[in-house]
Structures are given as C-alpha cells and as structure tokens.
C-alpha cells in the first residue's frame, strides 16, 4: 500500500487530503453519518480520540486478563485448537 | 467487516495469528514467573503494586506481540519495539534518552519545512502514533491508518482471549 517512497520535501495538499480521506474510512464514528464533507481537522481529531479509545480498551482488557490469570492457577497450554478457535470467530 | 483488507491478501489472518500466537506465548511465560511469595498456593489478595506490575507486564506483552507481528515493515512498529526494548534495558538509561532527543530534533526540523493547514491536529496525532514525532506528515497519516487497523485486531483478539478464559 505504501509503495510511495517519494522524498518530496513539500507534500502537496492533495496528497494530504487523500491520506486523510483514507483515515476517514477507518473511523467508525464518522462513517455513521453519510456526510462526506467532514473537514480534515475533524477527521484528524476523531483519529486521535479513536486511537486514545483503542488504547484504553487494550488497557482494560489487559487489566481483566491480569486478574483472570491471577485467579486461575492453571493456564491452558498454547495449542493449535485453541488458536484456531480464537481466530475462527474473528471476522 | 474489512472485506477489502482480506481480499488483498490471501492469508489476512497471518497478522492476527502471529499476534495471537506471540501474545499467548508471552502470557504463558508471564504466568510461569514466580510471584513474590514462593508458595504455590494462589494468593487471593495481592498488593496494589503487584497488581499494577502484572497489568503492566501484560500490557507491554500485548504491544510487543503486536509490534513483532507487524515486524520492521512499519515505522510505528519499529518505534514501539525500540521503546519497549530500551525500557527493558534500564541499565543503559543514557542511550534511551539520546534516542528520544534525536527524534525530537528531527521532528522540529521537519516542522520548519512547510506549514500545513491542519498543523495543530497533525501535531496532536504525532503523540498518539508510536514514532510519530520523527515522521513527516504523509508518513504519519499513512502509519496512523495501519496502526489503527492493527489496534483493532489487537482489541478483537484480546477480547476473544478474555472471553475464552472467563468462560472456563
């Protein structure tokens, strides 16, 4: 995807806009409303808050995991079956 | 969900599986580590400090597994791995500081080149993407996109793992 290795010292506004549009496609909040006229600054702000939210989710999951691992004395061995099961449910 | 993503690569689950495998192995290693008390009986009450330490180890393992699964292809994963490794080697404090200072200088140099429209927001985004301080605007936006996709994968896999172990 990032096959562009253009070492242009001055990125054009169009290039920036294109990349920002790509970001917009990843953000769930902005895709709820079919408003394609979200400003660049809005998209960037949403990106920041989305990353922040994802960080927090990872933190919460880590907390729960640490509690789970502490509570259960035994830990299931890493095996193919477990991983296949885990991955098959993720789309 | 990301049907585009899966069609571009025949094995779109390779990143997921690498992360899952790496993370589960790390968890297993963490679980094997002896706690502060050498007794084998599980402690029902642990000090806040111990809990914090456990949480941090898991958090770091999650980030390290994710960055390792991505490999050195991406600037953010390289930056994240570097950060984790420099933290772990606490004996070489001075080198870690030097690295962070280098990055700051580079970021400032790039900023002076051109003033962008959304300069303020881009500056804010730099702090959220690992290694963002040293990237130019285009790379930052590109890396941010990939980083978000990987974070999503991380959350999904970890949720699955938590669900799996809460059910048992």
UniProtKB/TrEMBL annotation, chain A:
Its main location: nucleus. GO terms for biological process: regulation of DNA-templated transcription; regulation of growth. GO terms for molecular function: protein dimerization activity. Transmembrane segments: none annotated. Residues 1-54 form the BHLH domain. InterPro entries: bHLH_dom (IPR011598), HLH_DNA-bd_sf (IPR036638), ILI2-like (IPR044172), PRE (IPR044293). It holds the Pfam family bHLH_ILI. Keywords: Growth regulation, Nucleus, Transcription, Transcription regulation. It is found in: Nucleus. The keyword Iron does not apply. GO terms for cellular component: nucleus. This is Putative transcription factor bHLH family. It comes from Rosa chinensis (China rose).
Automatic annotation (TrEMBL), chain B:
Residues 13-87 form the IBH1-like N-terminal domain. The keyword Transcription applies. Residues 33-48 have a biased composition (Low complexity). It comes from the Eukaryota. Residues 30-49 are annotated as: Disordered. Pfam families: IBH1_N (PF26576). InterPro entries: IBH1-like (IPR044660), IBH1_N (IPR059002). One of its GO terms (biological process) is regulation of DNA-templated transcription. Keywords: Transcription, Transcription regulation. This is Putative transcription factor bHLH family.
